[in-house]
């Protein structure tokens, strides 16, 4: 396949189970895309080998003999030198100088490495829902809650690359304990564990709920994806749960908007896809909780790029 | 008085009741300082006239015929053009183009205008407790709670100049209502109103407290300054109240540090001067609530410049 660009930009999205690499046009089209197992349980060397395979495969399909640049998005904190620190569920991975290692595999080719949530934020900024907004907070709302901050069309990484941890804004210092050890984090309220518990609780009084059908009657199997699905199917209990969760998410967003002088939030991840009523719930909550001068300008918008955000943002890093 | 600098930098600190102007050396020494009434109740024109008087007086005492630059710190949101918006308790002051107006009074002289909390943050960064910290959150903890964010030794103003509103991070979405309309804001927990109520509550069981002596037995007269004074005098109840408040402040700080990847907070304002035990309480709370990678690097430090921070930071703006 021949690209229209004079060089090929490769974007790589490293997830816990699969690595996706693709050829991305400067306009943000994915011209080719593959999928390799991450092998995260086999340690960093195995993962780097898989990245190499994925990139080589993408290059082979690009119609070019080499690549113009490689951008990588991956879990964990990524410092300014492209060292990736402690990605969750990656075995034996404390600190790995991923940028350096890829530089040895692809000498002379510009390489960028960024945290996956930041990469997705970059993608929405360059190609998605954030094109017209120079400043916004991007949120991934799925099993956990992650984020990335765009200031003046660029990612705000903070002093050491750790900025954007929206999931760990506490909205109740007496609230439920979060996996991070803190109390009442946004993630502890609207992430998988809490949503599933809340659903199980509510469903005891609602045996007719679509959620119960979707999990085959086994309440221990409830996951946000089923709640979203049930909500899409019009289930009242599912909608109530997500509206409540949206309100709580909005409390955290308002705090961030107040401290950083932001007005716009773009929300991606599985739950955000459950329907406009979720966005509306978040929007209403932010407007209610934010400082007066910000109220009229608040915009809470769904992300546009879905599962491709990571790969597109990784490519966007090196454009 | 002759300055050692070849030109004079004038710093102006506009408060609700007094305007202070001073000649500031590039090293951060105040070489001369005056004080004029703000006349905030007489409208913007009267205030601008007072600023003019204060600056002219400072120049007269500088030993120079003119000034090198004028920096101004004032309440309210200040946009990138030096327009000052809605400073609290300033009559008829919606939006005033202060930078422009001062430019007409002092033609050809560089003029900077900044929010007062941001100016104080700049002062601590350039001349005070923040010199060695490129990134920190500055907090003013007094009647209200304000803040300013220093990133890479510069003030972070946010997209429209409103960043740093630390007092309006909510730490409990079911908490007491804040003046801003939101629930559970840091300011609603550790600002004047709440502290005074909390004290009045506790004192019913502690008639021996030094606080009661300080307010002449009238619990309606309790203000944070008396609680601080009693704490300095060793009063147990006062110390308990401030330790509790410090813990709550720390919850808010932890959220900001998580989202912005910060490790350092410098705390000024009246209450911070009550003693090291307050700083220790805040520090312990932040360490307890912040994400793991940040814990070992957390530093909560008292501000160094006290009441001079505003004036010094205003001068620092234009250095």
What does this structure look like?
The structure is a homodimer of 319-residue chains. Chain A is an alpha/beta fold and 319 residues long. Chain A has 2 domains: 9-122 and 309-317, Nucleotidyltransferase, domain 5; 131-303, ATPase, nucleotide binding domain (Nucleotidyltransferase, domain 5, 2-Layer Sandwich). The first copy, chain A, is 38% helix and 20% strand. Chain A is built from 11 helices and 14 strands. In chain A, strands 1, 2, 3, 4, 5 and 9 form a 6-stranded mixed beta sheet that branches. In chain A, strands 12-11-10-13-14 form a 5-stranded mixed beta sheet, sandwiched between helices. In chain A, strand 1 and strand 2 (18-24) form a beta hairpin. The two termini of chain A are 20 Å apart. The model of chain A is unreliable at 1-5 (pLDDT under 50). Chains A and B meet through strand 11, helix 8 and helix 10 of A and strand 11, helix 8 and helix 10 of B.
Describe this structure in a few short sentences.
Chain A is an alpha/beta fold. The first copy, chain A, folds into two domains: 9-122 and 309-317, ATPase, nucleotide binding domain (Nucleotidyltransferase, domain 5, 2-Layer Sandwich); 131-303, Nucleotidyltransferase, domain 5.
């Amino acid at each position: 396949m021949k690209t229209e660009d004079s060089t090929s930009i490769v974007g790589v999205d490293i997830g816990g189970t699969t690595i996706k690499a693709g050829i991305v046009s400067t306009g943000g089209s994915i011209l080719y895309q593959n999928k390799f197992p991450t092998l995260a349980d086999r340690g960093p060397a195995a993962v780097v080998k898989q990245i190499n395979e994925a990139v080589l495969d993408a290059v082979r399909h690009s119609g070019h003999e080499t690549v113009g640049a490689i951008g990588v998005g991956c879990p964990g904190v990524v410092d300014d030198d492209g060292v990736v620190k402690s990605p969750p569920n990656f075995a034996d991975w404390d600190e790995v100088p991923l940028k350096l290692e890829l530089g040895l595999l692809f000498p002379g080719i510009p390489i960028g490495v960024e945290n996956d949530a930041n990469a997705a934020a970059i993608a929405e900024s360059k190609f998605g829902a954030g094109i017209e907004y120079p400043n916004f907070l991007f949120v991934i709302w799925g099993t956990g809650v992650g984020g990335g901050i765009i200031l003046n069309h660029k990612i705000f990484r903070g002093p050491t690359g750790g900025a954007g941890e929206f999931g760990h804004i506490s909205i109740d210092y007496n609230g439920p304990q979060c996996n991070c050890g803190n109390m009442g984090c946004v993630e502890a309220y609207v992430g998988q564990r809490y949503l599933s518990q809340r659903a199980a609780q509510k469903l005891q009084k609602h045996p007719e709920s679509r959620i119960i059908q979707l999990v085959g009657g086994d309440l221990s199997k409830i996951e946000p994806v089923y709640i979203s699905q049930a909500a899409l199917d019009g289930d009242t209990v599912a909608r109530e749960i997500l509206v409540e969760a949206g309100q709580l998410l909005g409390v955290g967003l308002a705090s961030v908007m107040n401290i950083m002088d932001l007005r716009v939030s773009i929300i991606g991840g599985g739950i955000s896809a459950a329907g406009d009523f979720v966005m509306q719930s978040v929007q209403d909550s932010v407007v209610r909780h934010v400082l007066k001068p910000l109220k009229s300008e608040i915009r809470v918008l769904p992300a546009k790029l879905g599962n491709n955000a990571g790969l597109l943002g990784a490519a966007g890093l090196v454009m």
